[in-house]
Specification:
By secondary structure, the chain is of the alpha+beta class. The chain has two domains: 161 residues, Gcn5-related N-acetyltransferase (GNAT) (Aminopeptidase, 3-Layer(aba) Sandwich); 183 residues, 3-Layer(aba) Sandwich (Aminopeptidase). The strands form three sheets. A seven-stranded mixed beta sheet has the order 1-3-4-5-6-15-7. Strands 8-14-13-11-10-9 form a six-stranded mixed beta sheet. A two-stranded antiparallel ribbon has the order 2-12.
Length: 401
């Protein structure tokens, strides 16, 4: 008797019946490269949490239908938003005279295929079905992020799906120590009201690539823990317009997103020696906190992180002030029970040197690939964004980290 042919159906995720199957696929796919530390992600029991805060989102699953037996063997998530892709005016001030260029983009993330069902075109089916939805929603571009060393993922998107390598930002991760970090004496940290933070970002950063048009929704989200301005010496905040009209000699700004409430991470694959060293460093740090030993937090059980986004600034002291902001966020993360602070910036970001990080935990090149979804769209003032050279900065939306 011939075995019945297995049929793969791609459909929208149903939380009531698909949740356990999706979680099983996620667990099977969380395997890192041999010989390296493997970072496992726990979505806190909600497969939709990575896209829940986006303006428009969809999750698809691939299901086998072999007689009465049905099994989830793949999944993908996608979301759509409007972002900046440049400006007509190269001058920074006055910002109100800029003509910013915005486009509707789709972000494709969380592509997973069960190890037992790979090489059957399931990943390609999921991507193509998601792109159909992107087009239906009017998205002009689609982009995705992957580890540059993930050869299978890079080949799928660049060779079979028509994506091109676009940007290579860096993910910078710094551990949170048992001791608090002192702030520079001359640095003043000011927490900005959400409305003022929004105005500052719109006036100063709206031309940065991938800046979200709905920045107000990001800053007012319950996961956003605040926007902080660092300046030297005494300074009185009198509003964003006044600030940009007469800015101090040097300043820096950054916002904080609470990823701890969305997902947990866990480092696996570490040797007993590394675990023992990390434990010893924590014990010494707690016992002699005044020594400020850079201890290794417990990353070998599920831990949370704070994400630093919207990093920017001006002046010769901006890099130093970014470091002050990072120390402030480190102390926030320590009090909030997080083990690491992460940031993602353009490879050529001028302020990158001010963001402390450990190379072992960081990713020097996070590959972003992009695809133009519809050639019939008018080029207009934008032209083809996929062919545009990278700028010095990039705005990483914390909802997609």
């Amino acid at each position: 008797m011939e075995e019945e042919e297995e049929v793969i159906v791609v459909r929208e995720y149903d939380a009531e019946r698909d949740r356990h199957g999706v979680e099983a696929v996620e667990r099977m796919c969380e395997v890192g490269p041999s010989g390296k530390l493997c970072l496992f992600t726990d979505l806190l029991g909600d497969p939709l949490c990575r896209i829940r805060h986006s303006p428009a989102s969809l999750m698809l699953v691939a299901e086998t239908t072999n007689g009465p037996v049905r099994e989830i063997v793949g999944l993908v998530r996608g979301c759509i938003k409007t972002v900046s892709c440049g400006t007509h005016n190269p001058h920074r001030f006055p910002a109100r005279h800029h003509t910013h260029l915005f486009t509707k983009v789709a972000y494709l993330l969380g592509l997973r295929v069960s190890p037992y069902h790979r090489r059957r075109g399931i990943g390609l089916k999921l991507v193509r079905r998601m792109e159909e939805w992107f087009r239906e929603m009017g998205a002009e571009y689609s982009y995705m992020a992957t580890d540059k060393d993930n050869e299978a993922s890079v080949r799928l998107f660049t060779e079979r799906c028509g994506y091109s390598k676009f940007r290579t930002p860096s993910i910078l991760v710094n551990p949170v120590f048992a001791h608090r970090l002192p702030l520079p004496r001359r640095a003043q940290i000011i927490r900005l009201p959400p409305r003022e933070a929004e105005m500052l970002y719109r006036l100063r950063f709206a031309s940065v690539e991938f800046f979200p048009r709905d920045i107000d929704a990001v800053l007012s989200n319950s996961l956003s823990l605040g926007t902080f301005l660092a300046v030297e010496g005494s300074f009185e905040w009198r509003g964003a317009e006044s600030f940009l009209a007469e800015p101090p000699e040097s300043w820096a700004v950054a916002s904080v997103w609470n990823c701890k409430e969305v997902f947990r991470l866990e480092v696996r694959g570490a040797s007993r020696w590394r675990r023992g060293f990390a434990r010893t460093s924590r014990l010494v740090d707690r016992a002699f906190s005044w020594l400020r030993i850079p201890s290794v937090p417990d990353l070998f059980r599920p831990f949370g992180l704070y994400f630093l986004y919207g990093v920017g600034g001006e002046g010769c002291g901006a890099t130093r002030l970014v470091t002050a902001l990072c120390r402030h966020v480190h102390n926030m993360a320590r009090d909030g029970g997080c083990s690491v602070v992460a940031a993602e910036v353009a490879a050529c970001e001028p302020l990158r040197a001010g963001i402390p990080h450990w190379g072992r935990l960081s990713c020097a090149e996070d590959l972003w690939c992009v695809k133009r979804l519809a050639e019939e769209y008018s080029d207009g003032a934008l032209g083809d964004w996929t062919k545009k050279p990278p700028g010095p900065s990039i705005f990483v939306d914390p909802r997609e980290f």
